[in-house]
Amino acid sequence: METRKTIRREQEELSTQMSHSMQLSSQIKKRTFTSSDEDTSYAHIFPIIPADVMSVKEVLDMEAVPRHRTWQILKETLAADEEYHREKWIWFGNEAEKVEVDVLKNQHLLRRRVDKLALRKQAQMKLSAHMRYLELLSQKAPDFPIPLRSHTVWEGMMVNFCCFVKGCPTPKVTWYKDGVLLRRPHIPWNFRIQEEFGLHSLEIRRCTPDDAGEYKVIARSPLGEAMTFGTLIVNSYQGAVAGSDYSKTPGFPFGLGAQFVDTFPPTWVTEGTSLTLQCTFTSPLVPVHQNVTWFRDGIQLHQSNNVDICTVDNKASITLKAAYKEHEGVYTIRLRTVDDIQEHSAFVYVRDASAEVLGGPASPLAVQVADVNKNYVFLTWQPPSADGGSPVEGYYVEKLEVGKGDWVPCNVHIQKMCHYPVFGLKEGTLYQFRVRAVNKAGVGRPSKATKPVRTADPLEHTRTMVITADRGRTVTVTKDELEGQIKAPLPPTNVHACEVSDTYVVLSWTEPEPRGREPLTFYVERSLEGSSSWELASLDMEVNSPRFPVFDLIKGKKYCFRVRSVNKYGVSDPSEPSEPISLGKPKAVPDPPHSILVFRDTDTSVLVKWQEPENKEDILGYYVYYNETGEKDWNTVNNKPVTNPRFTVHGLKTGKEYVFRVKSVSRAGNSSYSNESEPIVVKSAIRVPSAPSAIALLLCTGSEMVLGWRAPAHNGGAAVRGYYLDQREKDMEVWSEVNEKPTKERQFKVCNLSSGQFYQFRVAAANLAGVGKPSEASEPFLCEKWTMPEPGCPYDLEARDVTDSSLVLLWAAPLYEGRSPVTGYLLEVSKGDQSDNWTALDEIPASCRHYKVSGLEEGQTYRFRVSAVNEAGVGSPSLPTEPITAQTQPGTNKIEIGVDEQGFIFLDYKTDQMNEESEIVWNRDYTEPVDASRARAANTDNGSVLTFSDAAEEDLGLYTATMSDNPNQSCSYDFTAEDLERLKKLSWEIRNPLIALKSGWQVEVSEKGEVRLWFETESLSESAELRLIFNDQEISSTPHRRINFDRAKGLVEILFDRITWEDEGSYTAQLRDGCAKNQCTLVFVDEKFRETMASADAKRREYRRKSGPYFEDFLSWSVNEDCELIIKCKVTNVIKETSLKWFKDGKAVTQAAYDQSSGVGILTVSQVTKTTAGSYKAVVSDNRGEDASTLDLQGKEFDKLLQQLSKQFALSAGPLKVEGTSEGFRIYCSFKYYIDHLKTSWYFKEKRIDTDARTKTGSNSQKVWIDIPDPTEKDKGKYTLEMFDGSEKHQRYLDLSGQVFDEAFLDYQRLKQEAITEKKRARVTRGLPDAVAIMEGKSLCLTCFIDGEPALDTIWFRNDKEIVNHPQFTITKEPKCSTITINEVTLEISGKYSIYVGNKYGSETVDVTVSVYRCDQNPPENFVVMV
What's the predicted TM-score (pTM) here? Predict the structure, then answer.
């Protein structure tokens, strides 16, 4: 154990005997033993010197050791008689050493005991943790190793249902009969449920037919549930069988190895539409052993009204019934099995729905409701990614009372920031909110509505306490009841600003404590900083929650606010003023990101990274945009801000070039665009190739082996540059490198091997990205010289040109032929991935090294192998191919054959998998190279073209095109004699000129119903010839069918005066002009002929229709100067008997006017409303026929009408005028008629007056106005009313200054004084009825509430005489009410009673008639009976 120092102890008890209690210590450092869990501290060192080593004198002479005072005393004592005491001190030192040794031993013993206790404690803790770990490992979902068994018994017998349940933790077991829970003590008398050590049983004694049915046991635990079924059939002695429907306990397929088969890719969905994501698995999912959960951006999704999660058999899906931008993100499905967790994720993009107005912005998102109070909420949202081409200027907030009415705007003027306080809501009402963005083009689509929010007092729960009484009853006690009767309220406290914006301030305060039982409202007052004048800020608004937004503050000035509490008893004193508050500074939009970098990812996606701006405190996320090079429009990638400075963009086109840019997102809006990234071509990122496979031994000479292998399944996006081979002896662990330089061939000779030794090999492929993973180790190969007579195995077996029903197999000849040359090849096929059931494809061996396999089943998986054959027999088979699915790959292109512009025949192969290093290799019959003298190949950007110099019969055959770095990309074409004949003819036609056709046959129908067939060519010479063939017979002109041929114009036409069924058929025009010729054919049959005939007949009838009355001008509308809607039409060819009738939505209209002389019909609508919209119809008729015209004045057409009306209203607007009101000035403009479609804006000194200013706007059907309260000299100036009718602006002006201002100001002062006088005038507010009746002998109390300032004079009268000091009358007077009490009424006190109230501003008298009736009488009618 290590040496430690001890703490020096102060000697507290020193005596003259200290020389006999000397401390000694050994030369090693003394230790104070502590447990491993304790701390140790150190002090000075005191040596211990054994007596047999040093004398005491020597010890005393030591100078380098710290000395205690005892040493000095001892030294002085020994100096007197050194020889006498020497032996005595030696004995004393030895005894002291023995004592210290004993102390050290005891300390060692004590330390070991303490360490044992600490180790035991640690062992117990580790054991406890291990036991908990074992418990977790032992957890298992409930299961029934022994399920229920069905029983069939006779009536009166006993039956016992038993099952055994396993699971950890112990499951809870419940029994059911026909779906009804069996619960003690409500189970039948003959039922007994028992449980012992996991064995659960249900005993049924003396069974009856009523006991028959289906019995079910469910075992539940936190890990899941399991169930088992059993059926009881009770046979009655009367022959009836109860419960005859047999039920078998279902077995649970474990399916522990379920894997993903089909998954969902990155998906795009339009906002507001449904979305479904689905995955399939290799086996059905059993809830007991497997469960599926869905996540969006790491948050688990659950079943809800909008989310439908379904798992059936081997499929799992999630459906969003309506997808919104908030639902955009990474969707993950997690499959949890007993021994594994698998996940699949993909991004779901939510595209913007189409804009409601052209160029309008997209909808905002993430609308959140916060700070919910009785009549106030606070909204926040995020700006949209797409602004429609012009910046977003602000937002409109809308609210909806759930279950009532329509959406109502909350703000008149646009809100620029992405937050807004909504005030004036109804308490206890459910609301939903949404937001619309606004730009230059108009208002955009609304956001997703918030969840319903109920306005309520957020502190209500703190004032309510529920007490549980006996028998489950509860008593609710409110804090108001405990506070007692409080009349005059106390003032609020802690007035402060909880939200500060550049346009508004939201005030918050704490309600008074105690509050009292009566409902509280509040008055909000404000004052400029440093001023003692307070004014009411809440005005006519009722404030019943401790929140109040103030919008009419002046920027740059500071205000103090205070609040008063109000209840029915009065108004409290004002609260303490708040700290000075002013409008905040406008928040600036964030800086854009920078350093946009784009990286290749897959062939349809790229990774975009950027650097965040330095100040990112308020940034909510980022929007990414892309543009395809050469295109004008930019596209939005994500409609929900991403928080990470990197994003993978999917859905791009392979091989196309793109640039990207990014915006920052905050509550203040979106930043400007970042700089564009460098252009990038979408291609898969280069990766190392996958591992090769199928290592085969092709030849062995005894000291050398020739190996072959299959190329990697994936080359990593770049051509494989070579292969590295490793070897090891069997049962050895270490691999040794065979070739230092890579070999380009998939075949390699390994030398210097030991004969009779087994070797294993592995191969790794390399490309530009590096060396990939090595293959699996081959089987052990015996190094022994081959001498067998049969040939070795073929190699390089590959599949080409895979389709739904066929493929082509290619292979290389074996390197070892055996005793005789190879004469053929035997091919075998096996269905499935791992099946060893091989079937020969053909009984006759193939003579060549390629074979086309036909007749495959679409979607079926196959494996193939090939064996070489010689005279000795069939050799060993090649390694099987990888499983091949008979399915045409999406995007597979075929080889096209054709003739180029010079008349040469060519084969063209196109593919979108080409890269810079790809080449297309052409072969004949899969292996033979193409003769360069017969054809030449030329690679293009996306393929290759093989052009024949002079195609002939020797060029016929099978041609294949294969991509050099991706052999799976291949295609073949069989060049046949039919192709050669067809293309030779086409080549000849190309090399010989044709008459150019400007158009094909055209069919026209004239107004009279005549039919014209014509086509046009280039200009022809006078010697040009025309032959017209109709149904294989040459035709010429007839009176019914005229033929014209204009050679100069190249026009050929056939004219029919009336087409008939005999004219149906094929028309061919054959033209010849010298050596050039051409022909044009019209197949004039079936539907085309019938449509032409019908059109000709219709126009012929229309022509005849105009022989009677008809509409010369169809229904149309206009707006006159009087803002009236005029619907007008004009008919012609009328006679005296001609009538014109009008209809709207099928109902006759009689207000229309019709002038027969001019044929004009007019329907005038003096005032346009929503009911004006509809479908209008006019019918003109007489004995010669009738004609009709309709006008659909709905939807967009009605909106167009409103726009025109708005323009006319604006033109009819009078000049601006001003008038005084009791509150200030009102500037107004009169109209002939005004509708809301005409948008108005007010300006003061050329600056727009916002809604958050102190002015207020209003309108009615005749005028619009703006109110200026408390006008001052600052309000002088030019006022402008701007009217926007949807297309242009109109303005009216008023110069509010000079005499105009003075006259209006005098009116304002006069009206204000009258209002003040009226407000302060003495008056009776409420309390006295017109007539009361009371029974004789009772007391009558009349209370009257009064108001007015200053103090009021109150006098009561009886029959117009003042009541003064009468013992029967008691009069009480308070500031706001007065009461008269008549004690023990008699019949004589009946009469008229009056109360007079008055002050210097006026007075008022109110009368009440009092009628006293005896107890044996009924009270008078129409009197208020006092009880």
Answer: 0.48
